[in-house]
Each structure stands twice: as structure tokens, then as C-alpha cells.
Amino acid sequence: MPMVLLECDKDIPERERHIYLKVDGEDTRDFLPISNAATIPGTLSERGCSFCGAKLVIGGVLKDTIQMIHGPIGCAYDTWHTKRYPTDNGHFNMKYVWSTDMKESHIVFGGEKRLEKSCHEAFDEMPDIKRMIIYTTCPTALIGDDIKAVAKRVMEARPDVDIFTVECPGFAGVSQSKGHHVLNIGWINEKVGQLDAEITSPYTMNFIGDFNIGGDTQLLQKYWDKLGIQVIAHFTGNGTYDDLRRMHKAQLNVVNCARSSGYIANELKKQYGIPRLDIDSWGFNYMAEGIRKICAFFGIEEKGEALIAEEYAKWKPQLDWYKERLQGVKMAIWTGGPRLWHWTKSVEDDLGVQVVAMASKFGHQEDFEKVIARGQAGTYYIDDGNELEFFEIIDLVRPDVIFTGPRVGELVKKLHIPYINGHGYHNGPYMGFEGFVNLARDMYNAVHNPLLKLAATDIRGETATPVKEAAE
Ligand code: CFM
């Protein structure tokens, strides 16, 4: 039976439909785990809330936009400093996050006046900043505060400012995935098409679904500059509010993260006829393939080949050094969803690493279709996993390194298994050629960490996960 009921789930048999062990020769499409469904009561989900999907993942990345979070202070705090998306203008987005700091009396009597006052206060404090996104949160959505009406009043009082509203409280969906969707659709319907773009190249594109984690956007931008391709808008890594109002001016939409941002690419195709091209930006083979696809679209294939040759000459020897020393390392990937299918084949082909377990917090069926098609037999595929399941899976597959977030990562560290921040990266960027060498370096350092050799046993009294010896 390819679906797996773990020991720890014996009182929650429904979990069996969320965990799949791929067997050789099986038609995997018959056995996709259930996904994008409400978390089963009795399990403690690792998921984020829908507000988080809109604010932390997409909107909060913008480098020139006040983030006005209409709710209790915790909603702002917990989506403020927990993600690493730098900007080239001094990390504006990390310094300035605003909250209406709703307290009990505001909940009782309504928070619209307080929100309006907060908007003016923020614009007064930062006279150079003219753009804002207002988000509802659970309590302000429940009491029915009309944030669109407030935004309208503020824009009337201040003609030089522009405000976008996101009505996606934490409870709006089963995970952060809902927040991606709400923001994508709101933006295309309310803001795209408002501004003209100054076209400086015969080749123009939007780069969609890359959030400048550890500097990814800035690294890839070097490639687009070399190819002479003008990026009209970055959705949303190192991006600006006004560039995103110009998305309709691009000839092509290149999509990296299809999960968080496929919606806007589809709408740009439907509403403006702009084609969508999906690529993988992690890994040498994938990045080269992505550059080739983009260049083929514009008819600049020779430029693309020259760039790939130049990057390979520079970075491939370093990648190969790590590849030699990472052969057979067993890796687990426990992140949101897309990184499972982006990474499993790239670490296998480029680094000789074997992926033995993958858990997705919020991936949909199409994510599992892709990841199971690309992943190996003998690998566990888990939807909406929880800590008890992770511990049991660790015992089953004994990974040498786990790519996951700090919450789970700090736990597995106590089992003396190294983890790498699979969300924010340890020492990124990880995209592109140079980036994948960084990923390989972080993985090498993690599995060869000399501290692990001091840890003779793990907390279960068993021999610690073996540390791969260097090949030399
Ligand atoms: Fe896309 Fe992302 Fe991800 Fe994502 Fe995320 Fe993320 Fe992720 Mo963390 S947008 S879906 S909601 S690639 S924050 S930058 S790493 S869970 S797999």
C-alpha cells in the first residue's frame, strides 16, 4: 500500500491519505496525497495563516511601501523580521512596518478611525514614502472594519499617495496559500494597468515568484542585464509598488514560484495576452534550461549560450568540488511546497545528493504531481506534516541534513542532525549558478560540521546520524 499510516498517527487514521511512499514502477498520479485541505483536528500544523501568505510572503517584500497591519501588534511582529528579503535601498521593508496596535476597546468600538489616524501618522513620519498596503487581520475582519473606505478617505486627503488593500485575515483559508491568491488577484484587478512604462530594450519581461531571499533577485538581475532584457516588474523581490502597476507592459511573464504567483501570471495572460513561461531558478541544469527558454522566446539564443558558458566556466569547478564530497548525502526537504519540486532533481543531478523525504506545508495537487514525478522511489512525500511525524520519518530514512525552517530546524538540531534554513537560507543567495554553489557549500559545511563528531549519540540513545567523511 503506497499511502502510509505512521505509528504516531494511529489515532488519526485520516493522516494516512497525506503521506505517500513512492514505489518503483507505480503510476504515481493514482496516489497523490490529499493537499490544500483543512488540517485534521488532533494534529498540530506547521502551517502559516492566510494573512501571513499575503503580507510576509508577497506584499511585505516591496522596498518602498509602508506595510500597515490593521490588528493587534503580534500580527505585525510575527511577520516583520522572520524572513530574509534584502533590498538595494537599505532594507526599508525591515525597518518600517506599521501596526494599528488594536486593543480591546478598539475591537469593541471599531477600529476604522484608529486605522485612518495611523495611516496619516505613517505618511507624516516618512514624507518620502507615498505607497502603502493595508492588511486586515482576524479581529479587524471579524468586527467588519471597512479598510477600503479608510484607504479611499486617506487617498482623497493626500492626492500624492496610493494605497492597496488586502482583505485576507488569518482564517480566510487553510494555509498561507490563500493569502498568495488573494493578493495576486487583488493586485491584477485593482492596480495593474495604471501606469505606463519607459521601455529601454526590445526585450521586456516580468519576473514573477521570486522574493529576493538572501539576494536571489539581485543575483539573477545580473543575468538579465547581460542579456539586455529589461525587467518591467519583479513580483516582488526587491520590487517597487509602481513597477508592479506596469506589469501589463511586459512581453513575457517568467514564473519561478508557480504556487505563490502563478495566479497573477495566468491573469496577465487572460487579461493582457502576455505569455507565461515557467522556469526553475535553482540548480545549474535548471538555470541553464531557464535561460535557454527565455532567450529562445526573444530570439537571442547566442547571447544565452555565451552567458551560460561564462557562468559554467566560473562556477562549475566549484560545484564539482562539492559534488565529489556530497555524493550519497541523504537530504530531507520540509518547506512550503514548490521548493520540493524545484530542488529534488537539481540536488540529485548537480550534487549527487539523494532526497529521502519531502514535506509540504501548503502545496496543492499540482505541486505533488510535479514533486512525485521528479522525486525518487523510496522517498516519503508528506502533506501538512507535524513534528511527531517528522521524528518518525527521521527514524525511517535517517537523513544527513534537513532543509527546513528554524522552528523544525532547531528541534532536529537537538537530535544532532544538521539543518539548513530552507526558507530564508543560511548564506544565500541560492538561485542561479553562483547561488547553487552557495547552497552546496552550506550543505557541505552542515554535514561536515566537526561538532557533530563530538555528538556520539543522539537523544534517543542511538548512534548519531553518520557524518559523511570527506572524499579526499
Ligand atoms: Fe513560493 Fe517562496 Fe515557496 Fe512561498 Fe513560503 Fe518561501 Fe517556501 Mo518559506 S513564495 S511557495 S509561502 S518559493 S516563505 S520564498 S520558502 S514556505 S517553498
Automatic annotation (TrEMBL):
Q: What class of enzyme is it?
A: oxidoreductase
- Lineage per the UniProt record: Bacteria, Pseudomonadati, Pseudomonadota, Alphaproteobacteria, Rhodospirillales
Which residue range or ranges hold the Nitrogenase/oxidoreductase component domain? 49-447
Q: What's the encoding gene here? A: vnfD
Task: Identify the NCBIfam families for this entry.
Answer: alt_nitrog_alph, N2-ase-Ialpha, VNFD
Q: Does the keyword DNA-binding apply?
A: no
Task: Output the PANTHER family linked to this UniProt entry.
Answer: NITROGENASE MOLYBDENUM-IRON PROTEIN ALPHA CHAIN
Q: Does the keyword Nucleotide-binding apply?
A: yes
Matches recorded under InterPro entries: Nase/OxRdtase_comp1, Nase_asu, Nase_comp1_asu, Nase_comp1_CS, Nase_V-Fe_asu
Instruction: Tell me the SUPFAM superfamilies matching this sequence.
Output: Helical backbone' metal receptor
What is this protein called in UniProt? Nitrogenase protein alpha chain
- Name the protein family: Belongs to the NifD/NifK/NifE/NifN family.
